[in-house]
Amino acid sequence: MKLKMIYGLGLVLAAATLNSPSGAGAESVALDGLIEPYLIVKVGSAVPGILNTVEADRGDLVRKGQVLAKLQSNVERAALELARARARMKGTIHSRRARLEYTKRRMERMEALFKKKVIPLEEIDESRTVREMAEKELEEALENMGLAELEHRRSVEMLKRMTISSPIAGVVMERFLAPGEYVEDQPILQIAQIDPLNVEVFAPVELLGSIKIGLIAKVQPMTPVGGAYSAKVKIVDRVVDAASATFGVRLEIPNPENRIAAGIRCKVIYPDKYGAVLLKGRADISCTAILVKGAHPLRPS
Fold first, then answer.
1. What is the torsional sign of CA 208, 211, 214, 219?
2. pLDDT digits (tens, 9 = 90+) for 104-162
3. Measuring CA to CA, which of 96, 110, 169, 299 is 20 to 30 A from 268?
4. Per-residue model confidence as pLDDT tens digits over 180-195
């Protein structure tokens, strides 16, 4: 809030150039801003453990899905091998199936003898029961095989959790842990997505309702970056900060070649063709605002 009040004071002072000769006839609106990452992510581990490797360091560019770190996983690998071996064991199924085939043939012989009244009812009943038991044993063996396959899949997923991958493409801002350290609920790395970038602006309340989503502005990063880039308004706050009499605006700029560094202050200039709308016909007003966070550099204009 204190930061907003300071920025708000700057807005009030800048907007106080009413009826000034230098402001007469002005049609464009200039806002000061700060270019920031589109997204900042603190990457941690889904499971606690000891870090085996950390494969990225501060300043490294990383791709989405790139392996960043691995935990010690000897126990999990052994469990995976055991589960894989169980999932491949087909001996019990073959044995149960062979027994079932035998009981079927035996029952057919017993049925033929029973029809000829050579054997009593008790023997044919026993034969039928043996066949049913063999069928159930084969069914149980197939169910156990299904459980073994599920256990194997579970072990595979558990081993995957020992490898930490990047959820976004960006640049590593900070590395918090090193190999050999224990990780549980703390981050390992902090990554910033810098394509696109965000530009946050605190605009004076006089412009409320004039700056709309989709409006195009020019962003001019300060030295040493320089240049001019097109930016599109993505967010316009609907709540005004009473203390500073400002409201937030976010613009977005693509940065495919990472030419624009985040954290650079910039000028956000709305073209003349929008100036008359933004200033609502008051050509004697010129205002400057501080852009605070979140911007995306678009292609140079």
1. negative
2. 999 999 999 989 888 899 999 999 999 999 999 999 999 999 999 999 999 999 999 99
3. 169
4. 999 999 999 999 999 9
Which residues in 15-77 belong to E strands, given as ranges? 29-43, 49-54, 61-62, 67-71
What pLDDT was estimated at residue 27? Answer: 58
Contact predicate 51/161, CB 8 Å: no
CA distance 92 to 118: 35
Rg (CA), the chain: 35
Q: Would you state the structure tokens that stand for residue 56, as one six-digit string?
A: 């990225």
**How many of the other CB atoms lie within 10 Å of CB of 81?**
12
State the DSSP code for 186.
Answer: S
Q: For residue 1, which of 124, 9, 199 has the smallest C-alpha distance?
A: 9
Peptide bond into 48 cis (omega under 30): no
Burial zone of 21 (CB within 10 Å; 0-12 exposed, 13-18 middle, 19+ buried) = exposed
Q: Does the predicted TM-score (pTM) go above 0.85?
A: no
Separation CA 255–CA 155 (nearest Å): 40
Please provide the CATH number assigned to the domain covering 43-72+163-189. Answer: 2.40.50.100
Contact between residue 4 and residue 237 where contact means Cβ atoms under 8 Å apart: no
Q: Give the CATH number of domain 2-39+194-278; options: 3.10.180.10, 2.40.30.170, 3.20.20.480, 3.40.50.300.
A: 2.40.30.170
How far apart, in whole angstroms, are the C-alpha atoms of residue 154 and residue 83?
9
- Residue 250 DSSP SS3: strand
Residues 6+ apart with CB under 8 A from 272: 27, 28
